[in-house]
């Protein structure tokens, strides 16, 4: 679970960085970067975290 | 006053810090409080940050600068500076009859229910075609230009209502039976193929 959570966090941080960078410009390309790359990072990060919850292995929490 | 963009950046920074806490010390999720923090950091805060970012991008997509960021739109942007009042978009843009920073959007959105959503969906399609498809040459409107878009501003305006020409055909104009743009009255728009011969207005800095 902890590994998945780390990956999820990194994906979300990447998505947030893409979002911040995309807001520095006002062009169709920056919008597409946010929508496609950022959106993928957000979606995969959140889904991975939720997946880690439903496939919870409680033994890992005491590491 | 803090600008919306600053708020978005603050939110992004705070989100990253919160996520970093969970990434660096995932063991905090062993406690109930830690699980709540993890859920906030990895679900709620990113959803809010993405939503605020999407809203900001949607707002920005109404700006003239955004529309003209695609290479194919450059001549249409140049046509706004043609020094000839018979060019309807140029006259509207140069005289601020439409907001200069939202010139494209003001005239090319539907002033009907869901018009904004429709315009933005069309815009997404345009971006998709621009990057992944083959744009048409010349580009053209999906439908004949609806008088509703003109009347959104002009209806009720004295200069429009008092004109004998408009008065004589008012019902046909309002019912869209007689087009403002293709009936021979106001029919010069973005003649991008004639820009080489056009004289341009240069705004003073």
Taking the sheet with the most strands of chain A, its summary is: none
Kindly provide the radius of gyration of chain B, computed on alpha-carbon positions and rounded to a whole number of angstroms: 24 Å
Percentage of residues in DSSP E strands of chain B: under 5%
Give the strand content of chain A.
Answer: under 5%
Low-confidence stretches of chain B: none
Oligomer: heterodimer
- Taken together, the total number of domains of chain B comes to 2
Fraction of residues in H or I helices of chain A: over 70%
End-to-end Cα distance of chain B? 26 Å
Question: What is the helix tally of chain B?
Answer: 11
Q: Major beta sheet of chain B, specifics?
A: none
> How does the overall form of chain B come out from the CA principal axes?
elongated
What is the total tally of β strands of chain B?
Answer: 0
- How many beta-strand elements of chain A? 0
Give the largest interface pair and sizes.
Answer: A-B, 35 and 36 residues
Count of the separate structural domains of chain A: 1
Structural class call of chain B reads mainly alpha
Helix percent band of chain B: 40-55%
Q: Estimate the mean pLDDT confidence of chain A.
A: 89
Along the chain, the helix and strand elements of chain A come as HH
